Fold each of these.
Amino acid sequence: MLQVNAINTYYGPSHVLFDVSLEVEAGGVVALIGRNGAGKTTTLKSIMGLVPAARGDIVYKGASIRDRRPHEIARTGIAYLPETRGIFPSLSVTENLNLVAGRRPGPWTLERIFEMFPLLKERRATGGTLLSGGEQQMLAIARSLLMNPDLLILDEPTEGLAPIIVHEIRDRLRELKTAGMTILLVEQNFHLVTTLADRIYVLGKGQIRWSGSAEEIRADEAVQREWLGV
Amino acid sequence: MLTDGGFWIVQILNSLQLSMLLFLLSVGLTVIFGLLNFVNLAHGSLYMLGAMIGYSIATATGSVWLSFFGAPVAVMIIGAVLYKLLIERMRTAGPMNQVLVTFGLIFVLMDIARYIWGTDQLGVTGNIPFYGTIEVFGQFYPSYRLFIIAVGLITYAVLYVLLERTRLGSEVRAGVDDGETASCMGINVEATFFGVFLLGCALAGLAGAIALPAFSATPDMGVGILVPTLVVVVVGGLGSLKGAIVGSLLIGTTLTFGTALIPNFAGIIMYALLVAVLLLKPEGLYPVRA
């Protein structure tokens, strides 16, 4: 569904990504892991067109999206959930959701979202930033789903959240995987990654250093030591 | 003077009328600031062009009413040309370059106006809607100035509903909050911004057109109004509709009563207010970004 072919990305003069390639197949869950500053978020931002890649290509559903603008990429069916969660403080819970509702046809409706996240229904008139961190993350995931995406891109969905919320998010992600959602995930939680992902890429200093299955990385202590510091 | 109730009523109405003109100008400017991160010092010149074009429409057609519709449309078209030629290219040029270019634009537009309309004070006579005076709490007050107040209040109400109660309004607010994330929601932030910019230009043109029958128009009128408009934007908070209306009322009242009560200090009282707000709430009274 998504092929990233040897992209090189720069922040101004500094070269951040070096020939990064990865592939996400329809219905699969792919995780991108690595230390802070390895280039994980930049890879996701390059895919979304927020920090366009200077060289290489990004092919989605058979067409290059490298030079397209973020809103066009979003409309092709990629939902991106940034590390900062991206909840708009001036908008209430319902307004945050309505921003994307009905833009693309699909199985997710406001009613179904409120069924999956009853808490959001209770707090639907609340301002976006008056929610707790966990509630904000639930809202961010709910909003991504309401875009009825074909590919869901998540940047550290469990970062800074209480263990009980992390469990809830993990359960939701498992449900989505079972339902056949294609997911590209950046995540520091090694346990979550290895129980969820079909394929794992390890990024270090802007390059892909390793790729393989969850079983393989669990067994490979050298990779864990060198690139993850587990 | 101070115990005369009539003095207070007239000054309050004068404050409101100045505040509403400031609101029509500052609301466009503040949203352009907030959304586009663009400093458009030439916004006051659009007000001047609104008055000048309004004058030409009113004298050519004999209808002042027509100028209230024609001038905003004409100024919006001028705004669109400026956007495509200049502003779009200056988006990422940094604030200093934006200030220099739009500051230069003030003089270019002023000279163009002098070339077309001359340097005399222009005014419209005859066929002015709401001509005459009306009794307000025992005081006779020009009805037309009440009309200016009404236009400002109605504009605020329409913008409030548009911004707070429609999906388009949510998209604008999302874009002001975080443009990058808004674009990831499939919102064409650039197109939204362009629309908002045009609306801001039209409101500046409307302010000029409705100011014309009450005052007179000169090519430098855009410079005089620019400073209080910028003060309103900073005091109210960048990008905030509520900040624009509250800031306008604050500055309009301060200027009007300052001039009437302590004329020697009228020139600095607005700046004193600005400094006070910057010291106590540097992000403005109603900041959009937390």
Amino acid sequence: MNVVVDLNRCQGYAQCAFLAPQVFTMHGEESLLYTPVIAEDQDERVRRAAAACPVQAIVVGKEAGSGAR
Amino acid sequence: MRGEPRDGRIVIVGASLAGLRAAEKLRAEGFAGSLTLVGEEPQPPYDRPPLSKQVLLGKVPAENTGLPQRREVDAEWRLGVRATGLDPFGKRVLLADGEEVSFDRLLIATGTRARPWPNPAEAALDGVFTLRTSDDAGRLAERLDAGPRRVLVIGAGFTGSEIASACRERGLEVTVAERGPAPLVGALGGTLGTLATRLQRAHGVDLRCGVTVTALEGNGRLTGAQFSDGTRIDADVAVVALGAVRNTEWLAESGLAAGPRGVTCDAGCRAFDMYGIVTDDIFAAGDVARFPHPLFEYQLLSLEHWGNAVAQAEVAAHNMVNPGPRRRPHLTVPAFWSSQFGLNIKSVGVPTFSDQVVIAQGSLKDARLVAVYGYRGRVTAAVSVNQAKWLEYYQRLIETAAPFPPAPGAADRPESLVPVPSDVPDPKMLSHGPTVALTGHLPDRRLTVVQPAR
């Protein structure tokens, strides 16, 4: 599963960094860094983080075009 | 348009963010015909912003920035093959492998590529890089891992500044060469350019402004660089961050209004032909598109922004499968972000479309602020530094053409509400290309109140 964050929307509430710290980390006070390709054991945590995001900036889904290779 | 708008053959040339989001939107709007995506790079769509951040910091492998899909697109993917031509009469896209794809409607989303170093022999030296693709990022990250003695970054726009930031965070020595008077000055003007200068130096960057790199030295392998002020440095890595070139060469014989500034289209993403007549079956979206925006006096904008690629792709896709009266304009207020030297910089509106700027909240001293830009007495842009939560408020001021300078907010008292010139330089003075290019003429002054789409 992959994740992308719309960082125009993101306002640094850091809810995701609490719920899935292996995937989302704060870099400085406000910048968010994330791991786009998620390990399987993180799926549930990432889905919870996406649901909890106050500005709904997190998109989670199957890797796009993965059948195309 | 042949057949029903929700049927037929749609081809999307460009399989990155804009192409992917357009494909998803087409299916979401009920397009049931055949869909083909053509992409020059062999990888499925991936996200580029992490390349200059997570990837260069060594936190994420370059090949691991694939984009998630928002829905199934049921498309034929033609990846690793470049489009080389467009036959508008036969309605065919010609491919580099000699094949061709027929379409009823076409979306051009070929984006941009890194502007190469102008001297090919110097560009070929081992140690000279550009940063646009995941392959670029992978090679550069590997070289940074090896611990070069000094990295030279040529051009202090957003990409160059983020590269310099990542290098400093890794503890590498960095020299940044910028032709203009300050980093970021081409996008954000003089006031925030001064702040960027201070920050880079505080983080140990050897920042040299007002100079150009006149030669990259080396014999097979990069050893150093010479500057226009007569000085030179030793460097074993150089990253050329001189902005982007729009991928329009393949359209040279197409009869479309396509050139170095992009593919000109209307507010509904329909491409113009070379005579300025709008086509009804060829659309453009993302970095390659150049479109009029009512908030900025209908000047044609070319935006190299993540958010614009998404929003414009969705408008284009909607308009590709809906008849005239149901079509929508692309009116999104431009927005982008950058993360560098510990700061989160976010922008709404077009800061280069300004004559004055004021620090409306916070202060330059604390590097926590909102700078608001005005043009002829109305708000046209706002940039926050570690103050993102306030930006939405200013976006509404931009959308409603609110008077500039803005009234003081209730949150805190600004240092000074007296606007100063925004000092947006002539792009000719910069070593990197602008990420926002105002490329149209100035029509009669018109104030426009824009209602957000939907």
